[in-house]
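Quick one from the shared queue. A colleague (R.T.) flagged methylmalonyl-CoA mutase as missing a structural entry in our internal table.

Convert sequence to structure tokens.
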Amino acid sequence: MSDVAKMKEAAFPAPTVEEWEREAEKSLKGKPLERLVSMTYENIAVKPLYTRRDVEALGPLEQYPGFGRYVRGARPKGYRGEPWKVSQEISAASPSDWNEAVKHDLERGQTEIHLALGRLPFAVESVDDVAAMLDGVPLDRYSLRVDAGARSLSFLALLAAYLEERGVPLSSVRGAIGMDPLGAWAEQGTLPCSLERLYDEMAEATKWAKEQMPAVRTILVRGEPYHNGGANAVQELAFSLAAAVEYIRAGLDRGLTVDDIATRMQVSLAVGADFFMEIAKLRAARRLFAQVIEAFGGGESARRIELHVRTSPFTKTVYDPYVNMLRAAAEAFAAVVGGADGVHVSPFDEALGLADEFSRRIARNTQLILLEEAHVANVIDPAGGSYYVETLTAKLAEEAWKLFQRVEEKGGMAKALEDGFVQTEVEAVAKRRLDRVKTRKEKIVGTNVYANLEETPVEKPKQDAANVALPLDEKRVADIRASLAGGKWMEAAIRAACRRATAREIAAALVDGNAVVAITPIRAWRLAEPFEQLRKAAEEHAERTGSRLSVHLINIGPLVRHQARADFIAGLFAAGGVAAERSDGFASVAEAVEWVRNTNGTHYIVCGADDDYPAFVPALAEAFKQAKPNAKLYVAGKPPEELERTYADAGVDGSIHLGSNAYDVIVAFLTERGVALDGEVR
């Protein structure tokens, strides 16, 4: 038999898990295998290896998409029948600019018209504003997604009046024009009127849409307010689920059926940096929402929730912003693998201001590359059956359900927000994230690691002030209120809009006079903010003084002996906008002290190998303090306790090492240099 024939017949034996564990322990050189287990922000232990055993322990898995609780996807054909919606949120400085942007982007691959009223820099107040935005936009060819914030009835009335004036059938509109009062309450801490009245508006809008715009969803459940405050995946799922249950109960109390509510509900979640966790989150979301709707008696189609997904603003940065393209691409990939029905990819300059044509194009093309070049849509549920993803999905769903039940025990989502339970839970995780960012255990490329002090900043034009709101016409408000008294709120609001009543006037007529409860809002922030604040302060100081702040590195010995620690110190201080002035490698204390005398520094750090320090550092410290009594001297690396005392006695002010809180180190330096800081970011 030839060698080739033998090769064809050869088979590789499958090693057992026990064999792998033995080999892995050898690689760890005696350390336990548990060292490879990591804990997530969700307090889920992630193992280094998942096998068939893990999946078998979960019980029977869903085998096909479009069935059961839709863990594997809401549609049997996945994206092969219909791709996800390229649903880029568009913002612009004015209604006419918005109109130009949306037509431009629809011609270049966007497949859904998407806006968020609260994030526009102008107010959409009248039918004329709607006309300026939608003039020439083919609503018959594209779905429309409008995040209306706490209330949607006023905007829906403006849109309906505009369509009637143009002779466009209301029934031709599809997509989502929805409100999320609990999400707005969590974000802002207050509401425009009582929660009960907003539930009334939600029910009225939903009843009207059922008859007039049957393909439009009117209820949004947004997980972003929690995600953007620092929540983990379990919290985002649980609090979104609790909000949905609140809306279902409110709708049932107002004469809707569970199918009426669920089929007009859209869930919107953010996707962050933890790739597999985010895939699992979307899969778990479908399972959990199906489970809840089934418990309320909803039919099969009602259990198939629609998922809109946004790449995370929480992970984006002001500095080195082009890296945000890579972050958004990975997050978009997770969204698609997780089975999103529509996706918004953050423009890379999102944290800097309004996106321009270039940043919108890159964000949009990120989705189109996944669809057209990576062919991700050709495979239905590519993550299905993965031992890791299936296990993580089940664990996430289990933990989210437990937290959801705790919210229910507290009286539901509104009561949990009012009592501060939700805020406290989110803040606890946010603090853990912040601590890990400050110590650089959580790495942000281009910000707290690998910062580029020479980067050219992205310039954004200053935005003009938002339109000044016109005073309310109190007589018109009174007339609208009188017309509402007969019921049929939507019809009355549309008639008022046709008579050129503004959205604010329609909203004012709907206020019921009940007290609005103020709560502590969940503040949206970004992981990069702590270091961005320090770097900005350092840059402003440099502009005032004409020179950039710097630390001086006293390097010991040849490059191979000091480079690692010199790079570490330089990278740490660069995260705060501080440069590192490096010396050559010194062979003697005398050479080092001579260099110190000839430099104009205030903070010096010794960089070298551990075994070079005992003979060098004490003598250097004594001479250093004589040469520069007002300067600070540190060593890079953490010395043993006895040597640390010896160094301190000789005049060393401290050490900077991997365990140091980098943020605190930079704050201390900037403060000692007289840099004005605004205080803690959080």
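Residues 387-409 form the longest helix (23 residues).
Residues 573 and 666 are 6 Å apart (CA to CA).
Added to the table.
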